[in-house]
From TrEMBL:
Protein name: TonB-dependent siderophore receptor
GO MF annotation list: carbohydrate binding; siderophore uptake transmembrane transporter activity; signaling receptor activity
Organism field: Siphonobacter curvatus
Family designation: Belongs to the TonB-dependent receptor family.
First and last residue of the signal peptide: 1-19
Bilayer topology annotation: Multi-pass membrane protein
Any Gene Ontology biological process: siderophore transport
InterPro entries: Beta-barrel_TonB (IPR000531), Beta-barrel_TonB_sf (IPR036942), Carb-bd-like_fold (IPR013784), Plug_dom (IPR012910), Plug_dom_sf (IPR037066), TonB-dep_rcpt-like (IPR039426), TonB_sidphr_rcpt (IPR010105)
Length: 787
C-alpha cells in the first residue's frame, strides 16, 4: 500500500464522518448495582465550567459541549469521586447508563447504546500505561473483548489468534507470527504480558489458557520502550478478570469433538460486610484427545484473587495462578510431509492421524504465579503503581522428533528427555502525573523494572532412537537405555538480571495534536553455570545494555479521526553468547517506522485502524562453521519486514463484527549462510485476512438467538528459511456458530473448519513435519448464572 493511498483513505474517512456542528451533549442515568437511582450526584467535566446534578430518577443532561476529550467526574454524598475519560462528538447525543457501587465507590465501564457494542473497545492503557483512548495512541493496538472470546468459544490463545489482524499460530505450541516475525517464548521471553507486566505463566510448549482472561490485546511492533525485550512484531497482553463488588457466580460446561470436555466456575463478590475486601475464584478443568493417534491432554487451572480497598485512593490486590498440564505428548510435532524425488513436496500423502511421537512419550508441567499490585492515588494528578510478580515453571517430558528425511515411508527419530525448573521474579514500579505548562498538557510517567529470571535446573539429553515405518510403526525399543550415550546434553543453571528505567511524556498541544516521547535504558547481566561434565555448553555469559527511544505523533483533524506516526527502537539480548561458538555477540536490534490512521465511524459504532510499517531487524545469529570450529556462529545484517494492515470492529444495528487484512513482506537483506538476499522469512505469509460477524435478530419470536459466521485466509508461506522451495499452500477456513440466551441460561454451538480443509499452519525446524490445522470439529457450550 502506497503512502498516497493511505492519505486518500484518511481523507475519505474524514469526509464520511464530518461533524454537523461544533457542539455536542451528554445525557445519562446513574444507578446503584441494585438499579436504584442515585439522586443528587454531581456530574462534571473536569477543568471546565460544565456540570450538573442528577434528578430524583438519577438522570442528568449536559448540553452545548465543544467536541473533544474530557474527564468525566461523578461524586455524591456517601460515594467517592470517580474519573473516567470520555469523548464528546459534535452533533451527537449519547445516553450513558452508569452504575455506581456504594462500597467500592467505583463506576463500572461506561456503556453507550447496548451490549451489541461489546466487540468494540475504545480504550486501553497498556500501550502507554496512561488512560488514553486508542484513537489518541500512536501505535496499532487491537483488543479482542470477552464477547468475542465467548462467541468464538476460544479457550486458548492459539484458538483466538486468527481474530487478530496480521497474526497466526504457527503450530499447536506457543509459537505465533506477528508482522512476519516469529514470537516464541524461549527467544522472546516477554512477548506475553499479564496486565502489562512481564512474567508469562505458560511455557513455550503450551497453548496459553484463557480461563481467567477478560480480554486479549495485541500491541503491534516493538514495544521495548515500556516492556523491555519482546518480539519485534509485537506483544500480547492478557487482561485478567478482577474481583467485583457485586456478588456473582457462574458455571460453564463445554463438550466437543475428540472427547473434548471442559468445565469452569467463576465466583466473585465481597468478603467483608463493609465491602472493602473483595474476592474472585476461578477454577477450570479440561481434557481432550485429538485427531492424531495417542494424544491425550489434561489441564487443571486455579486462579484465586483478593482485592482490599483501603480507601477510594488506595488498593492492594493479590492474584494467584496455578496451571497443571498432563499429556501423552507435550509438544505438537505436527504431521508428516513427503519429499518427492525431484525435491518438491506432497502435503497430502499421509493421513491426518499419524504422528512421529511414541505412545510412551509424556509431558507434565506445573506453572504457578503470584502477583501483588499496590495502587495509590495521591491526588487527581499523581498516582503510584507497584507490582511484584513471581513465576515458576516446572517441566518433565520425553519426546520423539524426526531425524533426516522420509525414505520408503519410514523415518529415523531422535529421543529427547528434559527436566527443567524455571523462575521469574519481576518488580515494576511507576508513577504517573498530569500537569499543564501554559496551554500545553502533560501526562508524565516514570518507572523502573527489575527482573531476575532463569532456571535452577536444566537437564536435557538428546539420543538416537529407532527408525519406524510411518504406516505400520513399531514402537518397541523406542526409548533408549540409560547407558546409551547422548548426542547432546545440557546440565546447567542460569540467572539473568535485568534492570531498566524509563521516562515518558504524552504532550497535548491543544485538543488536536498529541506528542509521545519515551526513553528507556536496559541493562542485562546473566551467567550460565554447568552442573556436571555432561553439559555441552560449559558456560555462557550475557552482558548487554542500551537505550530504547520512542517518538509518537497523533493529529486529530476531526474528533473521531486521527493520523499518527511513530518511531521506535528496541533490542533483545542474544539467547546464546557461548565463547565456543564465537560469542559474545552483539544484541539483536529492531527499528520500526509506522504511519497510520484511526477512526470511529457511523456514530462511533465502528472503529477502523489503518497502518503502514517497516521493521529493520539486525544481528540475527546464524551458523558460520569453519574447519577449526564447527560450532561457530555469526551475527548477520538481518531482515526487513514491510507491510500494511487494516482492521475494524464494532456493530451496525443487529450485526457485530470484527475483520481485518494484513500484507507483509519479510525478507533477508543480505546473503550469508543464513540464506540469500531477498529470501522470504519462515512462517510469514504475505497475505492474511479474517472476518467474523454475529447477527442477533430483533423480532420477538427470535429474541435471545444469535447466528455467527467467519472466514480466515492465509496465503502460501515458506516453511524453512534455508529451503525456499518448501512452501505451505494457501488455505481458507470457514467457521460458524449459533447461540441462544434466556434469563440466566446460555447455549452456544460452534462448528470449525466447515469444509474440512486439510491445511498446514507452519513449520518448526525441518521439512519432514509441519503444524497441521484442525479438521472439522464441533463444540457445544452451556452456561448458567447462579446469581
Amino acid at each position: 500500500m502506497k503512502p498516497h493511498l493511505l492519505l486518500f483513505l484518511c481523507l475519505f474517512l474524514s469526509i464520511t464522518s464530518h461533524a454537523q456542528s461544533d457542539l455536542g451533549s451528554l445525557k445519562g442515568r446513574i444507578v446503584t448495582f441494585q438499579h436504584e437511582a442515585v439522586a443528587g450526584a454531581s456530574v462534571t467535566l473536569q477543568n471546565t465550567g460544565f456540570g450538573t446534578t442528577t434528578d430524583a430518577e438519577g438522570l442528568f443532561n449536559l448540553s452545548s459541549i465543544p467536541a473533544g476529550t474530557y474527564v468525566l467526574v461523578v461524586s455524591n454524598v456517601g460515594y467517592t469521586a470517580y474519573t473516567q475519560h470520555i469523548r464528546i462528538v459534535a452533533g451527537k447525543n449519547p445516553f450513558l447508563n452508569l452504575q455506581l457501587s456504594e462500597s467500592r465507590q467505583e463506576l463500572k465501564e461506561v456503556v453507550v447504546s447496548t451490549s451489541r457494542n461489546a466487540y468494540q473497545v475504545l480504550q486501553s492503557s497498556t500501550a502507554t500505561r496512561m488512560d488514553v483512548p486508542l484513537l489518541e495512541t500512536p501505535q496499532s493496538v487491537q483488543v479482542v473483548s470477552s464477547a468475542i472470546l465467548r462467541d468464538r468459544q476460544a479457550f486458548t490463545l492459539n484458538e483466538i489468534s486468527s481474530a487478530f489482524t496480521g497474526m497466526k499460530a504457527n503450530n499447536g505450541n506457543g509459537s505465533f507470527q506477528i508482522r512476519g516475525f516469529t514470537a516464541y517464548s524461549p527467544n522472546d521471553a516477554s512477548f506475553l504480558l499479564y496486565n502489562g507486566v512481564r512474567g508469562n505463566l505458560f511455557l513455550w510448549s503450551q497453548q496459553p489458557l484463557l480461563y481467567n482472561i477478560e480480554s486479549v490485546e495485541l500491541l503491534r511492533g516493538p514495544s521495548g520502550a515500556l516492556f523491555s525485550e519482546g518480539s519485534p512484531g509485537g506483544v500480547i497482553n492478557f487482561i485478567t478478570k478482577q474481583p467485583l463488588a457485586e456478588k456473582r457466580a457462574s458455571i460453564d460446561v463445554s463438550l466437543g469433538s475428540w472427547a473434548f470436555r471442559r468445565a469452569s466456575v467463576d465466583f466473585t463478590g465481597p468478603l467483608s460486610r463493609n465491602q472493602k475486601l473483595l474476592y474472585r475464584a476461578i477454577i477450570g478443568y479440561d481434557r481432550s484427545k485429538s485427531f492424531r493417534d495417542y494424544q491425550d491432554k489434561e489441564n487443571l487451572f486455579i486462579a484465586p484473587s483478593l482485592t482490599y480497598l483501603f480507601s477510594d485512593r488506595t488498593s492492594l490486590a493479590l492474584e494467584l495462578n496455578y496451571a497443571h498440564q498432563k499429556s501423552v505428548q507435550q509438544y505438537d510435532n505436527g504431521s508428516y510431509i513427503y519429499t518427492r524425488s525431484d525435491g518438491t513436496f506432497d502435503f497430502n500423502r499421509y493421513p491426518n492421524h499419524l504422528t512421529i511421537q511414541s505412545p510412551t512419550d509424556y509431558g507434565r508441567t506445573d506453572n504457578a504465579s503470584a502477583t501483588l499490585t499496590f495502587n495509590h492515588q495521591f491526588s487527581n494528578k499523581l498516582k503510584l503503581t507497584l507490582v511484584e510478580r513471581a513465576v515458576r515453571n516446572v517441566l518433565d517430558y520425553t519426546d520423539h522428533i524426526p531425524l533426516g528425511r522420509i525414505r520408503n515411508d519410514s523415518i529415523s527419530r531422535a529421543y529427547q528427555d528434559w527436566e527443567t525448573d524455571r523462575f521469574s521474579l519481576q518488580t515494576t514500579a511507576f508513577v504517573s502525573y498530569t500537569a499543564k505548562t501554559g496551554a500545553i498538557g502533560h501526562q508524565l510517567m516514570g518507572g523502573t523494572d527489575y527482573n531476575r529470571y532463569g532456571w535452577t535446573q536444566n537437564d536435557y539429553q538428546y539420543k538416537l532412537s529407532t527408525r519406524i515405518s510411518i504406516f505400520h510403526p513399531d514402537y518397541s525399543n523406542s526409548v533408549p537405555s540409560a547407558s546409551t550415550p547422548a548426542e547432546e546434553s545440557d546440565d546447567n543453571r542460569r540467572v539473568t538480571n535485568l534492570v531498566g528505567a524509563y521516562l515518558q511524556d504524552q504532550v497535548s498541544l491543544g485538543e488536536r495534536l498529541k506528542v509521545l516521547l519515551s526513553l528507556r535504558y536496559d541493562s542485562y547481566n546473566g551467567k550460565e553455570t554447568p552442573l556436571s561434565d555432561r553439559d555441552n555448553k560449559q558456560g555462557d555469559a550475557l552482558q548487554a545494555s542500551g537505550w530504547i527511544p520512542r517518538v509518537g505523533l497523533v493529529y486529530l483533524p476531526l474528533p473521531q479521526v486521527s493520523l499518527y506516526g511513530t518511531y521506535v527502537k528496541s533490542f533483545n539480548p542474544q539467547t546464546s553468547n557461548n565463547v565456543r561458538a564465537g560469542g559474545p555477540f552483539p544484541t539483536r536490534k529492531a527499528t520500526q517506522y509506522e504511519l497510520g490512521s484511526k477512526a470511529d465511524l457511523f456514530n462511533e459504532r465502528i472503529s477502523v485502524t489503518l497502518s503502514l510499517y517497516q521493521i529493520n531487524y539486525a544481528n540475527i545469529l546464524t551458523a558460520a562453521p569453519t574447519e577449526e570450529n564447527s560450532h561457530r556462529q555469526a551475527a548477520i545484517d538481518g531482515t526487513r519486514s514491510r507491510g500494511a494492515e487494516v482492521s475494524l470492529a464494532g456493530h451496525l444495528k443487529n450485526l457485530s463484527l470484527i475483520a481485518g487484512y494484513a500484507f507483509n513482506d519479510h525478507v533477508l537483506i543480505s546473503t550469508s549462510s543464513y540464506g540469500k538476499k531477498g529470501d522470504r522469512f519462515a512462517n510469514a505469509p504475505r497475505h492474511l485476512a479474517n472476518f467474523w460477524a454475529k447477527y442477533t435478530p430483533s423480532i420477538p419470536v427470535l429474541k435471545g438467538w444469535g447466528i455467527a459466521a467467519g472466514v480466515r485466509y492465509v496465503s502460501d508461506q515458506v516453511g524453512l528459511l534455508s529451503n525456499q522451495n518448501f512452501i505451505f499452500p494457501a488455505y481458507t477456513v470457514f467457521d460458524a456458530a449459533v447461540s441462544y440466551q434466556k434469563s440466566r441460561y446460555s447455549l452456544q454451538i460452534n462448528a470449525y473448519n466447515l469444509t474440512n480443509r486439510h491445511y498446514f499452519t507452519g513449520s518448526r525446524s525441518s521439512t519432514t513435519t509441519g503444524g497441521l490445522g484442525d479438521p472439522f470439529n464441533v463444540r457445544i457450550g452451556l452456561g448458567y448464572q447462579l446469581w
